[in-house]
Amino acid sequence: MTDAKEISPQWSRDYEIVEKAIRFIEENYGARPSLARIAESVNLSEFHFQRLFSRWVGISPKRFLQYLTKEYAKKLLDESRNLLDATYDAGLSSPGRLHDLFIQCEAVTPGEYKLKGQGLEIVYGVSPSPFGDCMIARTPRGICALKFVRGHSMEELDGFLRLQWPRASLKKDDTAIKRLAGLVFPFDDQWASAPLHLYVRGTNFQIKVWEALTKIPLGSTVTYEDIARHIGLPKAARAVGTAVGKNPIPFLIPCHRVIRKMGEFGNYGEGPDRKKALIGWEAAKKNPLTDIRSEI
Predict the structure, then answer these.
(1) Cβ atoms within 10 Å of 129's Cβ, excluding its own
(2) Is 253 part of any domain?
C-alpha cells in the first residue's frame, strides 16, 4: 500500500455535528426548518455551518440536504434499476466504481471457518474518520472488521471482534490503525492507489450477499430485492436483509447503499443518521446536484 496521509480528529468532530443536524431535520421534518434554524440546533451560526460542510463534504449544507430527501432516493433507485446486472456485464468499467476498483475481498476457506481464527493475529485500534471514530481490525491477509464507535467501550469493541474470531489473538495498536484508516477513507477525492484487501468469515449465503454489495457503484443505491434477484434467490429479500445486517466491514462492504424499494433509507447497524450521511456524502462526491428540488 502507498503511504497514507494522517487522519485528522477534526473529521470526527465535524461528523458529530453533521449527524446532530440530520437528526434534528428528521425530528422536525414537518416544520421544514430553515438552514439558520438547523445551524442554531447544533450551536453554530449559519456562516460557520456552511464552512463546516464545505470542509467535511465539499458542498453547501443546502445542497447536501437535498440528497437526503425521499424524492432523491426514489430518483436514485430509478437510475439504479438493474444496476448490479449491468455492472457485472460491464466488468469494472463504470466510472462510478472508482473506489470499488481497489477492493479485493477474500473469504476464509471451510477449514479456516471451523478454526474460528485459531493461529491468527488480529491488530485493531480506533481512528477518527469522516463518519465518526471507528474501530478497524486487520489480519496479515486483510481488513477483517470495521465498526463505528458510537460510544461503545473498548470492552464492547473487543467483544465484537471476539464474537467473529473467537480463537484469534488480539493486539491493540491505535497508531498502526490510524495509518491504515488513512488508506480506508479518502482525502480530497483521492482514493487508495493500491488494493485494499478484505478478509471475511461468514456462511456461503452471507459471502454471496457481501460480494454483491461490493458491486454497487459509489453514489448509487439498490434494494434488498435487487440483491436477492442478483444472487439467484429472488424470494430471499428478508434473508438478504439479515445478511446485510451481519456485514463485518461496513463502508468498505457498502451495505449503506441498500435501501427500501419505496425510497425509504431504512435501518442501518451503524445508525440510521450515519446511513443518510454516508449516502449523501457519496452522492456529493459522485456528481453535483443540479435538478432535485429541496424539501427542507
Answers:
(1) 21
(2) yes
Give pLDDT tens digits for 171-181. 999 999 999 99
In a domain, 190, yes or no: yes
**Number of domain units in the chain:** 1
pLDDT tens digits along 37-70? 999 999 999 999 999 999 999 899 988 988 988 8
Cell of 94: 463504470
> Residue 220 belongs to a domain with what CATH number?
1.10.10.10
Neighbour-count burial of 89, counting CB atoms closer than 10 A to its CB (0-12 exposed, 13-18 middle, 19+ buried): exposed
Predicted structure pTM score: 0.88
Coil/strand/helix, residue 130: strand
HSE on the CB side for 8, CA within 13 Å? 10
Dmax over Cα atoms in the chain, in whole Å?
Answer: 58
Question: In 109-223, which residue ranges form alpha helices assigned H by DSSP?
Answer: 110-115, 154-164, 174-184, 204-213
* pLDDT-based confidence at residue 99 (cuts at 50, 70, 90): very low
Catalytic residue among 105, 134, 144, 255: 255
pLDDT tens for each residue of 247-262: 999 999 999 999 988 8
Q: CB under 8 Å to 118, separation ≥6 — which residues? A: 167, 168
Q: How many angstroms separate the CA atoms of 237 and 250, rounded? A: 19
Tracing cell 480506508 back to the chain, one arrives at: 184
Instruction: Classify residue 25: in a domain, yes or no.
Output: no
Cα 197 to chain center, whole Å?
Answer: 16
Q: At 104, phi and psi to the nearest 5?
A: -120, 120
**From CA 219, how far away is CA 94, in angstroms rounded?**
12
Task: Let me know if 105 is a catalytic residue.
Answer: no
CA distance 284 to 62: 12
Question: Within a domain: residue 11?
Answer: no
Segment holding 172, helix H or strand E: strand 169-172
Query: Residue 224's domain spans which residues?
Result: 82-268
